[in-house]
Design brief:
By secondary structure, this protein is mainly alpha-helical. It has one domain. Helices cover 75% and strands 0% of the residues. It contains 14 helices and no strands. Helix 3 crosses helix 9 and helix 6 packs across helix 13. The longest helix is centred in the middle third of the chain and has 29 residues.
């Protein structure tokens, strides 16, 4: 059986193929040209990516993104806010009402329950933030922290976002305590500007104590150790502040400790804003802002050690 010879390609077929290739190239060129014009913005974005943020614009954007990520966790589990509201309510209902009747602590003519309420607001905010390092250790164990550290996000932005997310959580907790105090008849101010200042004070305090917790986490590296240290320092911080009694009634050595305790400045600012009592507001804001900044720097420097 003989093979059939291949039909030679004619000149007309070659001409048709050339015309087809030319038409395809023309179509591609037209598409690229259209992409560079306002009529084709979607393809233009594919060919030319948008300009990335540079310089000072990077850090605020990354801080805001980290803060939003942390707050989204709260949306999925609100039980923490409800359970943590129990302890402040007990302090106000039992401790506050009892010592109001005893008149054992001099408060300068202010009812003791009113005097106590700002201290309990600061205490509840601290209790939320002081164990924040446990969350970052969990993120390390789950591999999340390593993924965050390989992104272009500065370490200071990661810590700042987490710190201010803790401050926002503390503010939500403070709102709960304020409502409970108002129901108990505490004479609080409702001036909008002062309430905004109260929120700023709570955020700064929460940011500092969360950074303190993350700094300790970078040193001890394990959840069990952090839990033990957190429990060991929480009550001394609380009792060495002016949350329960004025600084003037403390012994001299405790007064010296109280002046080094950021919680005392937070309580002083909250009393001045909510009750209108004499306070050193500029000093209080300065100390809290400085403490938060130092906490962010310390926690950022130890973040790499925690991720190893």
């Amino acid at each position: 059986m003989s093979a059939v010879p291949a039909t030679p390609r004619t000149a007309s077929a070659e001409t048709a193929a050339a015309e087809t290739a030319t038409a395809g190239a023309t179509a591609v060129t037209a598409a690229v040209t259209a992409a560079s014009t306002p009529s084709g913005p979607s393809l233009s974005l594919l060919l030319t990516p948008p300009q990335a943020r540079t310089g000072w614009r990077v850090v605020p954007a990354r801080v805001g993104a980290m803060c939003i990520v942390e707050l989204q966790k709260l949306r999925h589990d609100r039980s923490e806010l409800y359970t943590r509201a129990v302890q402040p309510a007990l302090w106000l209902l039992i401790y506050g009402e009892t010592f109001t009747r005893l008149h054992a602590i001099p408060t300068g003519g202010t009812p003791y329950l009113d005097f106590l309420a700002p201290g309990i607001i600061a205490q509840s905010a601290m209790f939320i933030a002081i164990f924040y390092g446990i969350m970052i250790i969990w993120e390390r164990d789950a591999g999340v922290l390593t993924k965050l550290l390989v992104t272009p996000t500065p370490r200071a932005a990661l810590i700042t976002g987490k710190a201010f997310a803790a401050g926002v959580k503390a503010t939500i907790q403070a709102v709960v305590v304020v409502v409970i105090a108002a129901l108990l008849g505490v004479g609080l101010t409702w001036n909008p500007l002062k309430l905004i200042a109260v929120a700023v004070v709570v955020v700064l305090g929460g940011a500092f104590f969360s950074c303190l917790s993350m700094t300790i986490a970078g040193i001890v590296l394990t959840r069990d150790r952090l839990m033990g240290i957190g429990q060991a320092i929480t009550m001394p911080l609380f009792f060495s502040s002016s949350a329960l009694y004025p600084v003037s009634v403390m012994p001299g050595w405790l007064q010296a400790i109280s002046k080094c305790n950021p919680l005392s400045y937070q309580v002083d600012a909250l009393r001045g804003l909510l009750l209108g009592t004499p306070a050193h507001l500029w000093t209080d804001f300065g100390v809290l802002a400085g403490a938060a900044l130092l906490g962010i720097l310390a926690a950022s420097s130890l973040l790499g050690r925690l991720a190893k």
